[in-house]
Write a structure and sequence with these properties.
Order of helices and strands: HEEEEEEEEEEEEEEEEEEEHEEEEEEEE
Number of helices: 2
CATH class of the largest domain: Mainly Beta
Strand content: 35-45%
């Protein structure tokens, strides 16, 4: 009896610690946490894979999958779907992945058995660590962070887009893996976006770390590529039409570091020649070029914010950070009489009027 009481005491300490570390005002699996509103998604299934997709399961065999021990999985493949078998364990892809766009179609049992987390429960584990919950969430009260399409135990779905038991449903997931420094520190957390039956339910959220039952934990450095897995939670959940697109991991959003074209320096007198108003062929003021010290600025009539101009040559100036440019017409004294504005393949003739 003492052993049982002591074990429960340790569990309570563990849960209290987990709750204290949660980056949310809610405790993990808090039943008081507001539930997402119900929304109906009308996405027609199945969704065919794009031309560059890697098909992981097309309704045939499980040749792309394995069990947790590396041996053949004990899950069943038949009639165009794979189905979890109680006690068989998680199923893993043989191949490992990092950043992906993932499509999964799944169905909970048509005959409802159990309730809450015991009803149509499985999970899509990105990198085997970050779970997007699979659950029969049709009129099935449970804690909000355990509903279908939740980032399990962490992020509640924006809405409940679940279909009725037995109906095929879909997840479309965009996942960016976490980034770690060479010495193992977290550089950037994972990010995940989820569409459930075509309805946005997770909007570029950041998991707090790997998802776990009854607790939260921070990031620990792991490989850049790991297998995808589906959970065996004791319920016969079915999966079909599983495909993904591997995303370019070298994409870094943001402006370029500087202009790509060569830059020349012009003195104040030379720059003064370009100042003035330029009109389009319809006779409307289109552009004003002005100067702020040594910086030339383009003020478009339809844009209140002036944009930096870069002098690439006497006849060609570009807009900083863009491929748009002005090619000037100069008279015999080197003064602009007009210009042609090049942007996105379009050419807009301009006349300098003052």
């Amino acid at each position: 009896m003492r052993t049982i009481v002591f074990s429960l005491f340790l569990l309570s300490l563990s849960l209290a610690s987990a709750a204290a570390q949660t980056p949310s005002k809610w405790k993990v699996h808090d039943t008081a946490r507001p539930k997402p509103a119900k929304v109906t998604g009308n996405l027609a299934l199945p969704v065919p894979p794009p031309s560059d997709a890697k098909v992981l399961f097309d309704g045939g065999d499980l040749s792309n999958w394995r069990g947790a021990d590396g041996e053949a999985s004990k899950w069943i493949a038949r009639d165009g779907y794979m189905e979890s078998v109680a006690g068989s364990g998680y199923i893993f892809t043989k191949e490992s992945f990092g950043d992906v766009q993932l499509h999964v179609e799944w169905a909970s049992p048509a005959t409802v058995k159990g309730d809450s987390q015991g009803r149509g429960n499985s999970g899509v584990f990105l990198m085997g660590l970050y779970e997007i919950q699979v659950l029969d969430s049709w009129d099935n009260p449970t804690y909000a962070d355990g509903q279908a399409s939740s980032v399990y135990g962490q992020h509640v779905p924006l809405v409940n887009a679940a279909r009725e038991p037995g109906e095929w449903q879909s997840y479309d997931i965009v996942f960016r893996r976490p980034r770690f420094t060479i010495d193992g520190r977290l550089e950037k957390p994972a990010r995940v976006t989820v569409f459930h039956n075509g309805v946005l339910t997770q909007d570029n959220v950041e998991p707090w770390g790997p998802t776990k039952w009854l607790q939260t934990s921070g990031y620990v450095k792991h490989p850049d590529r790991l297998p995808l897995s589906f959970q065996d939670h004791g319920n016969p959940v079915r999966f079909r039409n599983v495909w993904l697109r591997e995303l370019d991991e070298n994409v870094r959003p943001g402006p370029p570091s500087g202009p790509a074209d060569p830059v020349i320096t012009m003195n104040a007198d030379e720059l003064e020649r370009y100042l003035g108003v330029y009109r389009n062929e319809q006779g409307l003021d289109f552009l004003t070029i002005r100067r702020d010290g040594s910086q030339m600025l383009a003020k478009f009539a339809y844009n209140p914010t002036p944009i930096d101009l870069v002098t690439n040559s006497e006849t060609e100036w570009s807009l900083r950070w863009t491929a748009a440019k002005f090619v000037f017409d100069l008279d015999g004294k080197g003064r602009p009489t007009g210009a042609v504005f090049h942007i996105g393949g379009d050419e807009i003739p301009l006349k300098r009027v003052r």
